[in-house]
Amino acid sequence: MEEIGVGVYGVGRMGLAHVQRIRERLRGARVVAVADPDPDFARAVAARPEVTGVLVEEDAAALCARPDVDGILVAAWDDAHEQAVLAGIRAGTRVFCEKPLTPTAAGCRRVIEAEVATGRRSVQVGFMRRFDRGYRDLRGLVSSGDLGSPLLAYCAHRNPSQPDGFEAHQIVSQVAVHEIDITRWLFGEEIVRVRVDESRRSSRSPEGLIDPLTIVLWTASGIRVNVEAVCFAGYGYDIRCEVLCEDGSAALAAPSFPAVRDRGGARTRIEDNWIHRFEDAYDTEIQSWIDSVGAGTSVGPNSWDGYAAQAVCDAAIASMDSHGDVVPVDLGPRPDLFS
Ligand SMILES: NC(=O)c1ccc[n+]([C@@H]2O[C@H](COP(=O)([O-])OP(=O)(O)OC[C@H]3O[C@@H](n4cnc5c(N)ncnc54)[C@H](O)[C@@H]3O)[C@@H](O)[C@H]2O)c1
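Predict the joint structure of the above. Result:
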């Protein structure tokens, strides 16, 4: 198979990490050009030694217009996703878009409509946990039925800290969105209602933020998922997931690090950030996107998945704002393109 040409829109932490994984570890693709909502930033990044030979374009539409670009990878800040993804769909260019597909369910609907109008699926959304070995094994176990019907689950998503400017609602749209997607994927069901419970506020969390939160999700068949979302846990990036079924339980296996035993006791390492914790998952995710672009197929989470997750986020934010109302989620009909 020939190499595909990739344009990267948004070259902050995530965009640059994807550029590097394509250049250094993945096969079947080359990064042709980059662009960013801040063109000076794109030029500065393209001048860095680890990005040599990559051209700079003005925007996502210009990336798509290049004859040597087969797919664009959108990793700009959330508010810039919709326009970039729509530019890709209209140009007939395949799109990988970091989560969230757009920051509102209404924006995701516009993406879905544009895709339906073309009659083909062309967008993969960056819910990389679906490519993580531990989550895949957990899903295989739950769906095998060996443990009986799933009843409830507990998830923890603890971040050491967040950058300056982190806003209250982002605990849902930036953090818990991963557990929202994983819940849909693990159980193969939509989430139908949500409630957000407050707890005592951590003294680490900035003024105006309530951290941690517990987000309670109920699926269509009644499975209840308690998501502990923590933005300022201080000690590390710690991800957990345990599913209780009728005949047993199954928990996510963490990446294995050496188990140290010494005078200080027994311990193992905990990752300090998401890029390291999910590095293998990101590699597998982007490789699968590259392979699918090359093969003309479509894999992984699609625009409907992006929309459904965002609709649950919108409902969770409404629950947050009402200090604990149970808020229903009504997705409306799923277009045949995504069935
Ligand atoms: N899948 C995941 O686990 C995951 C993890 C992190 C981020 N994301 C998503 O990826 C997207 C990008 O996130 P990110 O963490 O890379 O954001 P980022 O803040 O590092 O970069 C986002 C944008 O900020 C601007 N920017 C960044 N650094 C700059 C600088 N030094 N000077 C001027 N402008 C600068 C650029 O316009 C850039 O495109 C977001 O949509 C985010 O939600 C996904």
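The two ends are 29 Å apart (CA to CA).
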